[in-house]
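Good morning N.,

You mentioned wanting to compare the apo and holo forms, so I went ahead and generated the holo version with zinc ion. This is what I fed in:
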Amino acid sequence: MTPDLTRNQSLVMKTLSGAEAPLSAYTILDRLRDDGLRAPLQVYRALDKLLDMGLVHRLESLNAFVACAHPHTHEQELIAFAICENCGKVEEFSDEVVKERLDGWAKSHRFRAAKTTIEIRGDCGGCEAKG
Amino acid sequence: MTPDLTRNQSLVMKTLSGAEAPLSAYTILDRLRDDGLRAPLQVYRALDKLLDMGLVHRLESLNAFVACAHPHTHEQELIAFAICENCGKVEEFSDEVVKERLDGWAKSHRFRAAKTTIEIRGDCGGCEAKG
DNA sequence: AAGGATATGTAATGTCATAACATATTGGCC
DNA sequence: GGCCAATATGTTATGACATTACATATCCTT
Ligand SMILES: [Zn+2]
Ligand SMILES: [Zn+2]
Ligand SMILES: [Zn+2]
Ligand SMILES: [Zn+2]
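and this is what came out, ligand included:
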């Protein structure tokens, strides 16, 4: 069972869910000033918990955060992100073959993987279409 | 033909080549104080060029840089990094199947990939062996 | 009600990266 | 050699991202 969210966690989650693109912690903070948030730590602490719960992902190449597009569906699987550098939209996907290949490399090199990041930067179909 | 490196580029390259683990720009700067470097920008500018030349890679999940382990050998291929969170060592590898799968996803979603990041964080064989 | 665990508030600081502007060096061309 | 443009360098200030440290409040179990 997913635990209930605290006030700050709810505020941060709502902000990310309503966003079209990834947001930095400081942008989230700015959008929550009217709700009483004042300091970066209030956001970072909420983000930490939301990351633990799998409701939010961190995009390493952007230093920003997105709401998970498929909560509860990727328990153990590998997640990849396609990030449009033009409109900012992010697509989440997973590929079993990619996971198998990376697991295979790790196993053959005695590497114990804790977390894997896959991020593709480029231009999405919507943006390409518009030229 | 690879262009010759300038003074600052050489200094930064030498520092990275001699390092056991990825270094942040500011750590590189600290190690080059005695050689006359004073400001972050001197390092960042050198890094930009070295990245362009493919002699250095940036690790997004670490905000740090490593010397390329196989210069000139990965022209267009996808590079993955296995990063030990214990000893800091980084292994570079590539996998044609992974590349094909990600290319396939991109093609089917009309996504034009510009740069792909794959970083596996965990513990390397050497560290596992020691417990 | 007591006490521990969890959540929150706040200030200060640390870490990573770039903008803006001045000066110096390099290298082709006449 | 002298000129000019391109490239590289030096320096200061500032912006952007993240954490440490400490105080207070709230929740939950006993
Ligand atoms: Zn997700
Ligand atoms: Zn787009
Ligand atoms: Zn390389
Ligand atoms: Zn190790």
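The first strand of chain B starts at residue 56 and ends at 59.

Happy to go through it together on a call whenever suits you.

Best,
F.
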